[in-house]
Fold this sequence. Notes:
207 residues
Amino acid sequence: KDATRELTLHGHDGPVKWLAYVSPFPPAPETDPPQPGSWLVSADAQDIRQWDVARNQQVAVLVRNLDDLRSVSVDRLGKILALADASGVTRTWRMPDMQRHQVIGPEPSRISSVVTTAHNRWFAWADQRGHVSVVDIDRPLPRIEFDSGLSNVCLAFSPGGTMLAVAGEGDPPIQLHSVSTGEAKPLAAGVSAVRAVAFGDAGAQLA
């Protein structure tokens, strides 16, 4: 068996509460097997940092001095970073230059979850009442809003960004919402709570 390589990256002052790999570069053909050029993005309650894992070094501190980070999301290509903190404001940035792209809020209720699509078009968030909002990142379209009826909501977009999974505490605890039509399909009836939700790479499976 191949030995597992372990690295320790130092820089955060507090406990790390979120991690995501992004691949802003095409696969390097000279590697065997080809490996994507990946960065690791990590967050604690105040800061979000970017790492070059292959070189075992920090690339940048993307965001500093947050007011108790509540939720953060980055698209798969590492082009849009979105977050919400205790201020009730949601923010998005363009990466890698970290140009402030959009600020929404403050929202009237505490935001519990934010998510972006893999192709960095849609941005959604949910508050503690289970109210969900969806906006188009680039086009000034009206905000899509609905009440899920759930609490402690978590969100996930399908790989193509056509469906939004909304999960939390309630019965049924999962709802699939079509971004284009607003049609909702309930799932997992009889299960009292779902704490995390994710789509498979092809979008045909939901866990």
